[in-house]
Write a structure and sequence with these properties.
By secondary structure, this protein is an alpha+beta fold. Helices cover about 25% and strands about 15% of the residues. It has 13 helices and 14 strands. A hairpin with a 2-residue loop joins strand 7 and strand 8.
Length: about 425
């Protein structure tokens, strides 16, 4: 089943699959000379190699961990209740949920000393939304008026414009944003790093700034990004935002797998592992006690179906696939019960969450799944499942999820590819 950017999003409602919680690793022996909770010192974080460090170019959770220190987007989400809080912005308002006025914090600068203005945000959003640039977070800007002109649907067609008609810089600290339709959740969208500002150097030479990012956040790059080894951040002395940095330095140590990172955590060679491998969760709880925690997350993994493909046009077939997936079995067998089966399009911590919104369609019922499959004509010749993250556990849960209902058509097949041909969907999944 080969998803595309548009069809993947369209199919979420039918086959939302697994996880609405994540595991947070313990803090190992600290390298800081300061006591916990006091400013100063340094600590290290285990990380998988990011793909990009330019906000609009990535939706990878590995990149986002670094970008959260380097950039302040307009808003942030409260980790306790998911509510939207101002960050680089001081306020936003709209009388109709279509035309929004966003006011930004005055007197802030990028790490190179350049002033952050409303134009810095507009330039960044235009670059990400311009289809030919091919930036991964492009579709986050689809709500803004003029997006379609930058992303023509006809194959081979050239964009009719280079900038979003819905963006208007009113002054140095005010940006007017006009959407295509009413969208009350627009402020929440502003919390995603792709909405962070970019300096002029990034729009002039994005490839250079991608590997040597110049942000507006509490930390700045310290030295070169050492590929597959480390990324060092240091406190930005010129920071005037609301997230006052505690540590003087944060070192991201890059590992090829979480299993290796967990071994390094045990050995005291890294201080923080933000996602403990599910198989190691019981061991981590025994070893680290209160320093190991499981915290709510808005992350969700799912299967997306190409609904434009006539083989998947029948909703009964899509429901059959969903009802053939044993979500509870997967979370217990592969993830040791650390994660929760998804029964809604959003996790418990997201405002607007409705429990069991998916209803019977997300309940494991192989008998009903087989009946629906037969009623839909048997499902054709099968397809290919692509997944963008080649972790072993991803292949394990996808292998279980992709198993067809009992007695499937003989022609049904599943083949594996560890590289997705399209940008990853808008999740923070790691």
């Amino acid at each position: 089943m080969k998803p595309t950017r548009s069809t993947t999003l369209a199919a979420i409602a039918f086959v939302t699959v697994v996880l609405a919680a994540s595991a947070c690793g313990p803090s190992g022996p600290t390298k800081s000379k300061n006591s916990p909770g006091t400013p100063g010192g340094a600590y290290s974080v285990a990380l998988t190699e990011p793909d990009h460090l330019l906000p609009g170019r990535t939706t990878s959770s590995y990149s986002l961990q670094v970008l959260q220190g380097l950039f302040d987007p307009p808003a942030s989400l409260d980790p306790e209740d998911g509510s939207v809080k101002p960050l680089a912005a001081t306020s936003w308002s709209s009388a109709d949920n279509i035309v929004w006025t966003v006011k930004f914090r005055p007197g802030t600068t990028f790490h190179n000393g350049e002033r952050v203005t409303a134009a810095s945000f507009a330039d960044a959003w235009n670059a990400a939304a311009y289809g030919p640039n091919g930036w991964d977070a492009n579709y986050y800007f689809a709500q803004i008026k003029g997006y379609d002109a930058l992303n023509p649907s006809e194959e081979g067609a050239k964009p009719a414009a280079r900038t979003l008609s819905g963006l208007k810089v009113l002054d140095d600290t005010t940006l007017q944003v006009t959407l295509k339709a009413p969208f009350g959740q627009f402020p929440m969208l502003l919390s995603f790093p792709a909405f962070a500002p970019l300096p002029k150097a990034a729009t002039a030479n994005p490839d250079a700034v991608d590997v040597a990012p110049i942000g507006n956040g509490p930390y700045q790059l310290d030295g070169a990004w050492e590929r597959n080894q480390k990324i060092r951040l240091k406190k930005f002395s010129g920071y005037r935002g609301s997230r006052k940095p505690m540590a003087d330095r944060v070192d991201f140590k890059i590992y090829t797998s979480r299993e290796t990172a967990f071994t390094e955590l045990q050995a005291g060679n890294v201080d923080v592992l933000t996602t403990v491998p599910a198989a190691n969760s019981p061991q981590a709880k025994r070893l680290f006690g209160e320093r190991f925690s499981i915290r709510p997350s808005g992350t969700m993994d799912y299967l997306g179906l190409p609904v434009k493909d006539p083989r998947f046009a029948d909703p009964r077939l899509r429901k059959a696939i969903s009802m053939a997936i044993d979500r509870k079995g997967i979370t217990q067998a592969i993830y040791n019960g650390v994660y929760k089966p998804a029964t809604s399009l959003v996790g418990d911590m997201i405002p607007g969450h409705r429990p069991d919104a998916c209803g019977r369609t997300c309940a494991y019922d192989p008998v009903a799944a087989k009946q629906l499959l037969e009623a839909a004509g048997g499902g054709g010749a099968g397809g290919v499942v692509y997944f963008s993250n080649p972790r072993t556990t991803n292949q394990h849960w996808l292998s279980r999820a992709a198993r067809p209902p009992p007695k499937p058509p003989a022609a049904s097949t599943v083949r594996w590819s560890s590289t997705s041909p399209t940008p990853t969907p808008p999740t923070s999944s790691g």
